[in-house]
């Protein structure tokens, strides 16, 4: 009886109802923010450890590249793209001396190479490979892994046939080995459906953000902000409605308690009569 009374009191109390709406607001807003930020900033994603590790490796190269000559930069870039656990390159691209080699007739191919690993896909490599340094086996696997991230971002499933075509792999075995490598490196989350020749994706790690993508990100943030305001307004409206109905609800609760008390009294009376007999 005591617990039942507490439950009814909480259920009809405006503060409790408002609390439910606030919790829902925070939950939905957080999901939206994570969805937006996860595609823009590496350290905001589920696989934060991937980017932390990648950024830690990149810092060593950044120190070396900051004061490096143009010729030294080409060697550093080749090391970076061959580094098996490095998947983010934006900070290196932004270095002033790296920007300089972009306009160098002899060295611009190294800038293009780094740019493809930062933002591009295997298809970009194929289109420009005649004007790029020769790819090692490690570089080929890495650009395929980066392409796999791009192909699986924002979707739930993708067929093996599409992946084979986009990544120019010769067999399902080669493809599944690449996917397993992506799983192992925490680049994507999901499962392989071998019977249906489909990759089911629950998450893909973020890649570097192009400067021209920033306006799109800003618009997404504005949309998220508008949704937060919408939920906030709903919370206030519901709170006002609950407050307006509070007197009626407490009167209803009082009547319920009276009925329960009457039933208990009647039951006690019946038990007493039975005992007297």
From TrEMBL:
Its keywords, alphabetically, are: Membrane, Signalosome, Transmembrane, Transmembrane helix
Any Pfam family: PCI
Q: Which PROSITE patterns match?
A: PCI (PS50250)
Q: Which InterPro entries match?
A: COPS7/eIF3m, PCI_dom
**SMART domains linked to this entry:** PINT
Residue ranges crossing the lipid bilayer per the database entry: 6-27
What positions does the domain PCI occupy? 25-206
> Where does the signal peptide begin and end?
none
Its Gene Ontology cellular component terms are: COP9 signalosome
Q: Which family does it belong to?
A: Belongs to the CSN7/EIF3M family. CSN7 subfamily.
**Name under which the protein is recorded:** COP9 signalosome complex subunit 7
User: Which species does the entry assign this protein to?
Assistant: Trichinella spiralis
């Amino acid at each position: 009886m005591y617990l039942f009374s507490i439950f009814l009191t909480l259920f009809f109390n405006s503060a409790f109802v408002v609390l439910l709406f606030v919790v829902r607001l925070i939950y939905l807003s957080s999901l939206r923010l994570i969805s937006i930020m996860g595609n823009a900033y590496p350290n905001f994603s589920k696989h934060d450890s991937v980017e932390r590790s990648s950024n830690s490796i990149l810092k060593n190269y950044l120190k070396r590249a900051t004061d490096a000559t143009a010729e030294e930069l080409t060697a550093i870039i080749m090391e970076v793209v061959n580094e098996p656990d490095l998947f983010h390159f934006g900070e290196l691209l932004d270095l002033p001396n790296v920007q300089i080699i972009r306009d160098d007739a002899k060295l611009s191919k190294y800038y293009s190479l780094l740019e493809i690993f930062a933002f591009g896909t295997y298809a970009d490599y194929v289109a420009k490979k005649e004007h790029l340094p020769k790819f090692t086996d490690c570089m080929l696997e890495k650009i395929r892994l980066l392409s796999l991230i791009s192909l699986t971002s924002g979707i739930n499933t993708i067929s093996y046939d599409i992946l084979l075509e986009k990544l120019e792999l010769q067999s399902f075995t080669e493809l599944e080995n690449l996917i397993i490598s992506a799983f192992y490196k925490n680049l994507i989350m999901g499962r392989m459906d071998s019977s249906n020749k489909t990759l089911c994706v629950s998450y893909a790690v973020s890649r570097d953000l192009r400067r021209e993508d920033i306006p799109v990100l800003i618009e997404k943030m504005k949309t998220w902000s508008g949704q937060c305001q919408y939920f906030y307004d709903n919370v206030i409206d519901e709170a006002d409605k609950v407050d307006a109905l509070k007197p009626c609800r407490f009167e209803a609760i009082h009547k319920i308690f009276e009925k329960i008390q009457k039933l208990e009294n009647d039951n006690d009376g019946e038990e007493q009569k039975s005992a007297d007999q």
